[in-house]
Amino acid sequence: MAIDKRFIGREYGPFTYTIGAEKLREFAMAVGGAHPAAGTPGEPPAHVSPLLYDDQAAKAGPYGDLIAFPSFAVVFAIRPFATAVADPELEVNLLMLVHGEQELEFLDVMRPGDVMTTTGRISDIYEKAGKQFLIATTESRNQRGELVVKGTWTAVVRG
Amino acid sequence: MARSFQVGDTFTHVRECDVYRPIYYAGASGDFNPIHIDPEVGKVAGLDGVILQGLCTLGWAVEAVAVFVGDPGRIRKVKVRFSRPVRPEDTVTFEGRVTAIEAGRLTTEVTATNQRGEAVLRGAVVEASIG
Q1: Any catalytic annotation for residue B31?
Q2: Contact partners, residue B88, CB within 8 Å, separation at least 6
Q3: Backbone phi, then psi, for B31, in 5-degree steps?
Protein backbone atom coordinates (compact mmCIF):
# COMPACT_ATOMS: atom_id res chain seq x y z
CA MET A 1 0.00 0.00 0.00
CA ALA A 2 1.29 3.41 -0.95
CA ILE A 3 2.48 5.70 1.82
CA ASP A 4 0.29 8.81 1.77
CA LYS A 5 2.18 11.77 0.32
CA ARG A 6 0.38 14.11 2.70
CA PHE A 7 2.95 13.13 5.32
CA ILE A 8 5.70 14.94 3.40
CA GLY A 9 6.87 17.73 5.68
CA ARG A 10 5.94 16.00 8.93
CA GLU A 11 8.54 16.85 11.58
CA TYR A 12 10.04 14.69 14.32
CA GLY A 13 12.08 15.78 17.32
CA PRO A 14 13.89 17.53 18.81
CA PHE A 15 15.77 14.56 20.26
CA THR A 16 18.63 15.30 22.64
CA TYR A 17 21.67 13.10 23.19
CA THR A 18 24.72 13.67 25.40
CA ILE A 19 27.92 12.16 24.00
CA GLY A 20 29.91 10.11 26.50
CA ALA A 21 33.57 9.14 26.11
CA GLU A 22 33.08 5.44 26.79
CA LYS A 23 30.28 5.21 24.23
CA LEU A 24 32.60 6.82 21.67
CA ARG A 25 35.31 4.29 22.46
CA GLU A 26 32.86 1.40 22.31
CA PHE A 27 31.55 2.51 18.92
CA ALA A 28 35.05 3.05 17.50
CA MET A 29 36.05 -0.43 18.65
CA ALA A 30 32.89 -2.09 17.29
CA VAL A 31 33.35 -0.55 13.85
CA GLY A 32 37.12 -0.94 14.02
CA GLY A 33 36.99 -4.68 14.60
CA ALA A 34 38.01 -5.16 18.24
CA HIS A 35 36.85 -8.34 19.97
CA PRO A 36 35.21 -7.40 23.25
CA ALA A 37 35.84 -9.85 26.06
CA ALA A 38 35.38 -9.98 29.81
CA GLY A 39 33.65 -6.61 29.90
CA THR A 40 36.47 -4.77 28.18
CA PRO A 41 36.07 -3.07 24.80
CA GLY A 42 38.83 -5.24 23.36
CA GLU A 43 42.26 -4.43 21.99
CA PRO A 44 42.15 -1.77 19.29
CA PRO A 45 43.22 -3.08 15.88
CA ALA A 46 46.24 -1.29 14.41
CA HIS A 47 44.27 0.69 11.85
CA VAL A 48 42.07 2.37 14.48
CA SER A 49 43.21 5.95 15.13
CA PRO A 50 44.30 6.66 18.75
CA LEU A 51 42.31 9.91 18.45
CA LEU A 52 39.23 7.69 18.90
CA TYR A 53 40.21 5.90 22.11
CA ASP A 54 43.52 7.05 23.67
CA ASP A 55 42.97 10.03 26.01
CA GLN A 56 46.61 11.11 26.09
CA ALA A 57 47.20 10.82 22.36
CA ALA A 58 43.91 12.58 21.67
CA LYS A 59 44.63 15.46 24.07
CA ALA A 60 48.02 15.97 22.37
CA GLY A 61 46.39 15.70 18.93
CA PRO A 62 44.74 18.21 16.61
CA TYR A 63 41.38 18.31 18.43
CA GLY A 64 42.54 18.48 22.06
CA ASP A 65 40.24 15.67 23.15
CA LEU A 66 38.86 12.33 22.05
CA ILE A 67 36.71 12.64 18.95
CA ALA A 68 33.85 10.53 17.70
CA PHE A 69 34.31 8.18 14.79
CA PRO A 70 32.32 10.18 12.19
CA SER A 71 29.49 7.69 11.69
CA PHE A 72 28.93 7.61 15.47
CA ALA A 73 26.47 10.35 14.50
CA VAL A 74 24.00 7.68 13.41
CA VAL A 75 23.52 6.68 17.06
CA PHE A 76 21.56 9.87 17.77
CA ALA A 77 20.80 11.32 14.32
CA ILE A 78 18.73 8.29 13.31
CA ARG A 79 15.95 9.16 15.75
CA PRO A 80 13.69 11.24 13.45
CA PHE A 81 14.06 8.67 10.65
CA ALA A 82 13.40 5.72 12.96
CA THR A 83 10.42 7.52 14.48
CA ALA A 84 9.04 8.40 11.05
CA VAL A 85 9.08 4.88 9.63
CA ALA A 86 7.48 3.57 12.85
CA ASP A 87 4.86 6.35 12.90
CA PRO A 88 1.61 4.35 13.04
CA GLU A 89 -0.20 6.90 10.87
CA LEU A 90 2.13 6.16 7.97
CA GLU A 91 1.26 2.45 8.06
CA VAL A 92 4.71 1.34 6.88
CA ASN A 93 5.18 -2.43 6.90
CA LEU A 94 8.45 -2.58 8.87
CA LEU A 95 9.09 -6.20 7.84
CA MET A 96 9.27 -5.06 4.22
CA LEU A 97 11.50 -2.08 4.95
CA VAL A 98 15.13 -1.84 4.00
CA HIS A 99 17.62 0.98 4.51
CA GLY A 100 18.31 1.93 0.90
CA GLU A 101 20.63 4.90 0.95
CA GLN A 102 22.44 7.07 3.45
CA GLU A 103 24.16 10.40 3.27
CA LEU A 104 25.89 12.12 6.18
CA GLU A 105 27.66 15.44 6.17
CA PHE A 106 30.01 16.36 9.01
CA LEU A 107 30.62 20.05 9.61
CA ASP A 108 32.73 19.56 12.73
CA VAL A 109 34.11 16.82 14.96
CA MET A 110 32.15 15.59 17.99
CA ARG A 111 33.76 15.36 21.43
CA PRO A 112 32.77 13.81 24.78
CA GLY A 113 30.34 16.08 26.61
CA ASP A 114 28.79 17.50 23.48
CA VAL A 115 25.01 17.67 23.73
CA MET A 116 23.50 16.99 20.32
CA THR A 117 19.96 17.99 19.43
CA THR A 118 18.49 16.41 16.32
CA THR A 119 15.43 17.46 14.41
CA GLY A 120 14.15 15.94 11.20
CA ARG A 121 11.37 15.88 8.69
CA ILE A 122 10.00 13.67 5.98
CA SER A 123 11.31 15.41 2.87
CA ASP A 124 9.86 13.12 0.21
CA ILE A 125 7.65 10.10 -0.38
CA TYR A 126 7.43 8.55 -3.82
CA GLU A 127 6.98 5.29 -5.68
CA LYS A 128 9.43 3.87 -8.20
CA ALA A 129 9.53 0.44 -9.84
CA GLY A 130 6.81 -0.84 -7.52
CA LYS A 131 8.66 0.21 -4.37
CA GLN A 132 7.86 2.97 -1.90
CA PHE A 133 10.59 5.44 -1.01
CA LEU A 134 10.54 7.55 2.14
CA ILE A 135 13.25 10.18 2.56
CA ALA A 136 13.97 11.90 5.87
CA THR A 137 16.41 14.74 6.37
CA THR A 138 17.94 15.50 9.75
CA GLU A 139 20.03 18.22 11.35
CA SER A 140 22.03 17.75 14.53
CA ARG A 141 23.31 20.77 16.44
CA ASN A 142 25.66 20.90 19.41
CA GLN A 143 25.14 22.74 22.72
CA ARG A 144 26.34 25.98 21.11
CA GLY A 145 23.67 25.72 18.42
CA GLU A 146 26.24 24.95 15.73
CA LEU A 147 25.15 22.63 12.95
CA VAL A 148 27.44 19.58 13.16
CA VAL A 149 25.75 16.76 11.25
CA LYS A 150 23.29 16.73 8.36
CA GLY A 151 21.71 13.44 7.33
CA THR A 152 19.61 12.19 4.44
CA TRP A 153 18.02 8.81 5.14
CA THR A 154 16.25 6.70 2.55
CA ALA A 155 13.89 3.86 3.43
CA VAL A 156 12.70 1.50 0.71
CA VAL A 157 9.53 -0.49 1.28
CA ARG A 158 9.09 -3.53 -0.93
CA GLY A 159 5.63 -4.28 -2.28
CA MET B 1 55.32 17.47 6.77
CA ALA B 2 51.87 17.41 5.27
CA ARG B 3 51.27 14.50 3.01
CA SER B 4 50.35 15.32 -0.57
CA PHE B 5 47.48 13.73 -2.39
CA GLN B 6 46.89 13.44 -6.13
CA VAL B 7 43.82 12.78 -8.22
CA GLY B 8 44.06 9.12 -9.22
CA ASP B 9 45.62 7.97 -5.93
CA THR B 10 44.18 4.62 -4.88
CA PHE B 11 43.84 2.79 -1.57
CA THR B 12 42.54 -0.55 -0.34
CA HIS B 13 41.02 -1.53 3.00
CA VAL B 14 39.91 -5.09 3.80
CA ARG B 15 37.51 -5.95 6.61
CA GLU B 16 36.14 -9.27 7.75
CA CYS B 17 32.66 -9.44 9.24
CA ASP B 18 33.40 -11.93 12.01
CA VAL B 19 30.62 -14.09 13.45
CA TYR B 20 29.69 -11.70 16.29
CA ARG B 21 30.29 -8.36 14.53
CA PRO B 22 26.56 -7.60 14.01
CA ILE B 23 26.05 -8.16 17.75
CA TYR B 24 29.03 -5.97 18.73
CA TYR B 25 27.77 -3.26 16.39
CA ALA B 26 24.25 -3.63 17.79
CA GLY B 27 25.56 -2.97 21.29
CA ALA B 28 27.61 0.02 20.25
CA SER B 29 25.03 1.60 17.96
CA GLY B 30 21.77 0.62 19.60
CA ASP B 31 20.53 -1.04 16.41
CA PHE B 32 19.09 -4.25 17.86
CA ASN B 33 16.78 -4.99 14.94
CA PRO B 34 16.36 -8.79 15.28
CA ILE B 35 17.46 -9.36 11.66
CA HIS B 36 20.96 -8.44 12.91
CA ILE B 37 21.10 -10.57 16.04
CA ASP B 38 18.64 -13.46 15.77
CA PRO B 39 19.31 -16.06 13.03
CA GLU B 40 15.76 -17.43 13.34
CA VAL B 41 14.25 -14.04 12.57
CA GLY B 42 16.71 -13.67 9.72
CA LYS B 43 15.46 -16.95 8.27
CA VAL B 44 11.81 -15.94 8.60
CA ALA B 45 12.66 -12.65 6.84
CA GLY B 46 14.12 -14.67 3.97
CA LEU B 47 17.70 -13.58 4.71
CA ASP B 48 19.11 -17.02 5.51
CA GLY B 49 20.46 -15.87 8.87
CA VAL B 50 21.55 -12.52 10.26
CA ILE B 51 22.97 -9.65 8.24
CA LEU B 52 25.37 -6.91 9.26
CA GLN B 53 23.89 -3.44 9.82
CA GLY B 54 24.33 -1.45 6.60
CA LEU B 55 25.49 1.48 8.68
CA CYS B 56 28.44 -0.63 9.88
CA THR B 57 29.42 -1.19 6.26
CA LEU B 58 29.08 2.57 5.77
CA GLY B 59 31.38 2.98 8.79
CA TRP B 60 33.97 0.75 7.12
CA ALA B 61 33.85 2.87 3.96
CA VAL B 62 34.45 5.93 6.15
CA GLU B 63 37.24 4.05 7.93
CA ALA B 64 38.91 3.22 4.59
CA VAL B 65 39.16 6.92 3.79
CA ALA B 66 40.04 7.92 7.36
CA VAL B 67 42.99 5.54 7.28
CA PHE B 68 43.99 6.86 3.84
CA VAL B 69 44.01 10.52 4.98
CA GLY B 70 45.37 9.58 8.41
CA ASP B 71 42.75 11.28 10.60
CA PRO B 72 39.10 10.32 11.18
CA GLY B 73 38.31 13.94 12.13
CA ARG B 74 38.86 15.00 8.53
CA ILE B 75 35.92 13.07 7.08
CA ARG B 76 33.37 15.60 5.82
CA LYS B 77 30.79 13.61 3.90
CA VAL B 78 29.73 10.09 3.08
CA LYS B 79 27.06 8.92 0.68
CA VAL B 80 26.23 5.28 -0.06
CA ARG B 81 23.56 3.02 -1.50
CA PHE B 82 23.21 -0.36 0.20
CA SER B 83 23.03 -2.86 -2.64
CA ARG B 84 23.54 -6.22 -0.93
CA PRO B 85 23.73 -7.42 2.67
CA VAL B 86 27.00 -8.32 4.38
CA ARG B 87 26.80 -11.55 6.38
CA PRO B 88 28.92 -12.99 9.18
CA GLU B 89 32.14 -14.48 7.78
CA ASP B 90 32.01 -12.30 4.67
CA THR B 91 35.17 -10.42 3.74
CA VAL B 92 34.62 -6.98 2.26
CA THR B 93 37.28 -5.27 0.18
CA PHE B 94 37.07 -1.48 -0.09
CA GLU B 95 38.90 0.06 -3.01
CA GLY B 96 39.05 3.82 -3.21
CA ARG B 97 40.23 6.29 -5.77
CA VAL B 98 40.71 10.05 -5.43
CA THR B 99 38.50 11.67 -8.07
CA ALA B 100 38.88 15.36 -7.18
CA ILE B 101 40.90 17.69 -5.01
CA GLU B 102 39.50 21.17 -4.63
CA ALA B 103 39.65 23.89 -1.97
CA GLY B 104 41.38 21.66 0.57
CA ARG B 105 38.87 18.89 0.11
CA LEU B 106 39.46 15.49 -1.38
CA THR B 107 36.70 13.43 -2.99
CA THR B 108 36.99 9.67 -3.25
CA GLU B 109 34.89 7.02 -4.93
CA VAL B 110 34.87 3.79 -2.99
CA THR B 111 33.75 0.34 -4.09
CA ALA B 112 32.91 -2.35 -1.54
CA THR B 113 32.94 -5.94 -2.77
CA ASN B 114 32.42 -9.23 -0.95
CA GLN B 115 34.53 -12.38 -1.44
CA ARG B 116 32.22 -13.48 -4.27
CA GLY B 117 32.90 -10.28 -6.19
CA GLU B 118 29.45 -8.81 -5.46
CA ALA B 119 29.06 -5.11 -4.68
CA VAL B 120 27.67 -4.47 -1.18
CA LEU B 121 27.66 -0.69 -1.62
CA ARG B 122 26.99 1.30 -4.77
CA GLY B 123 27.92 4.84 -5.68
CA ALA B 124 29.89 5.35 -2.48
CA VAL B 125 31.49 8.78 -2.26
CA VAL B 126 33.50 9.94 0.74
CA GLU B 127 34.94 13.43 1.12
CA ALA B 128 37.68 14.51 3.50
CA SER B 129 39.37 17.81 4.25
CA ILE B 130 43.11 17.84 3.66
CA GLY B 131 43.76 21.55 4.28
Answers
A1: yes
A2: B17, B18, B19, B20, B21, B22, B49, B50, B52
A3: -90, 90
The reported pLDDT for the residue numbered A159 is 67
Radius of gyration, alpha carbons of chain B = 16
* Beta strand extents in B1-51 (DSSP E only): 10-16
User: What H or E segment, with its residue span, contains residue B68?
Assistant: helix B54-69
Residue type, position A142, single letter: N
Amino acid at site B98? V
For residue range A28-80, list pLDDT tens digits in order: 999 999 999 878 888 999 999 999 999 999 999 999 999 999 999 999 999 99
Whether a cis peptide bond, with omega within 30° of 0, leads into A14 is: yes
**B18 catalytically annotated:** no
Q: Is B75 close to A105, i.e. CB distance below 8 A?
A: no
Point out the catalytic residue in the list B35, B37, B42, B54: B54
Could you tell me where the DSSP H helices lie in chain A? 21-32, 55-59, 74-77, 79-85
Residues of chain B with pLDDT under 50: 1
- Give the integer Cα–Cα distance in Å for A86 and B11: 39
B42 to chain A: closest CA residue: A95
* Interchain contact, B56 vs A31, CB within 8 Å: yes
| pTM to 2 decimal places | 0.96
The interface pTM score, or ipTM, of the predicted complex is 0.96
